[in-house]
Design brief:
single chain, 72 residues, 4 helices, 0% strand, globular
């Protein structure tokens, strides 16, 4: 089970993990609420998840380009 969890967390976008770190909630509870909310609202939170994943990837790219303070 740990191997499957590690694979999914490493291959996923990390949106729930980042949200959990920012808000101070457990990642597993955020994932559960996301799943429940997706079933109740017929999958509309999937769009929000994809937008947040896109935003996180853009942030990673921008951080990679500007590695020092002097790179402006």
């Amino acid at each position: 089970m740990k191997n499957i969890q590690y694979f999914l967390e490493s291959q996923a976008f990390g949106v729930c993990t980042k949200l959990g770190e920012k808000l101070g909630f457990a990642t597993s509870s955020i994932r559960l609420y996301f799943i429940y909310l997706s079933f109740l609202t017929f999958g509309s939170p999937v769009l929000v998840y994809l937008v947040m994943a896109f935003w996180l990837n853009i942030q990673k790219i921008l951080r990679r380009e500007r590695s020092t303070v002097w790179d402006l």
